[in-house]
Amino acid sequence: MKFRLQKLLDIAIKEEELRKQELFKVRKEKENLLNEIEKNRKYLDNLENEFIGKKIQGNYLHMLLEIKQNGELYLENLYKKLEHVENLEQKILKEYLEKRKERMSFEKLKERAIQKFRIEQQRKENKNMDEIAERKFFFGGER
Description:
Blueprint: H1 6-51, H2 58-138
Helix pairs in contact: 1-2
Protein name: Flagellar FliJ protein
Subcellular location: Cell membrane
InterPro entries: Flag_assembly_chemotaxis_eff (IPR053716), Flagell_FliJ (IPR012823)
């Protein structure tokens, strides 16, 4: 039996797999960003602890303040990038779920076509068996 929508099913499977790979890639990027944010946040906390309880003066203080300011800007950029990646993740997840639904619909259609084919084959086989039994009865069967 040949399923006439097999090419569409194959395309749907490939598209679903592609979206799944994209989703995995974006989630990995999100995980990396979260790790980077955590690392930088800890660094800035340690830098602030450097200020507390110590008498720092002059160029060293200016350098620490500059480092802290740049670190906060970098952290802000990481949060913006994280927001962008999360939006992208939601978009790809939505596409993935749509492609999965599409694939499942084609698979259901294929299952129905197979079921219909099997029923038709069974009907033909029953018809042939009935004809054979009829012939046997009329042309030489036991009476």
